[in-house]
Amino acid sequence: MRWKIAIAFFAVYVCWGMTYLAMRVAVMEIPPHLLSGSRFLLAGVLLYAWARLRGHAAPTLTHWRSATVIGGFLLLGGNASVAWAEKTVPSGLAAVLIAVAPIWMVGLEWARGGPRPTRAVAVGLLLGLAGVALLVSGRGPAESRVDPLGATILVLASASWAWGSVVSKSAALPKSPFVATSIEMIAGGILLLVTAAVSGQFRGFDPVRVSFEAMAWWGYLVVFGSLVGFTAYIWLLGVTSIAKAGTYAYVNPIVAVLLGWAVLHEPVTMRMLLAAGIILVGVALVNIDWSATGLAAYLPERSRPSRAR
């Protein structure tokens, strides 16, 4: 069991952390909504086929409607916006900005009548905002500055992802987390491809001209980003605590920053490191408070350990 857990954590820590590098490379040659749409549609179909072969019940029409709404927030508003923003924002900093999603979740849940944030959560929120402000400040050399528009898109993408996660808690979805996620990816992937078509991203796009490197990273996103990483995370929810499984939120940005620096030669300054540290401390305060007060209350019913076993 120990080596299985170690492999699963490696998948969640490293495989998910590398998706920011993968999107950064692939989006330079593949339009963002086309990149995300094709990735999630294929991954969703493969996961759905696997779940059905394993005997999981087929989703109903109501399940598909809910999955379309959630997939729209998670993938269209969330993931595709990250891919778009990574045209101008380094991959490591994109991962840091996306890490504020737990803070959004607390605030959005409170707005819907959920539990009021505690003092620790309030401090975490303020630290997160301070870190983001420091990160996008215009001080320092030009090469180390963060594009304000790209950073804003990333923060809004994090909010969209958080809202989709909050909505999914009470939505009518299949009990099987694998079926539920597969139809969310399928529905979200279709929405992304429709958006790509409407915005003209198919026009002039020739897959033959896409480099092998970009296609390889696209394949990585399908296999390791969507299938391996998610499956490992769901399995970890069933064999470890939610707090331990959720530590990927702290590790992914570190992996992304290091890979962006080592592979893409993205600049890393002391201001960036300080801002990243402040943001992650803020997120940690929120997650620690969740663990103390009952983190499961913020998670979709199908994602709790009892359902994932």
What does this structure look like?
The protein has 309 residues and is mainly alpha-helical. It has one domain. The chain is 74% helix and 0% strand. It is built from 13 helices and no strands. The protein is globular and about 50 Å long. The relative contact order is 0.22.
Number of helices: 13
Mean pLDDT: 82
> How many domains would you count in the coordinates?
1
Query: What proportion of the residues is helical, as a percent range?
Result: over 70%
Q: Name the helix and strand elements from N-terminus to C-terminus, one letter apiece.
A: HHHHHHHHHHHHH
Give the overall shape: globular
SS content category: mainly alpha
State the gist of this model.
With 309 residues, the protein is an all-alpha fold. It is 74% helix and 0% strand. The relative contact order is 0.22.
Features of the shown structure:
mainly alpha, 0% strand, globular, disordered C terminus
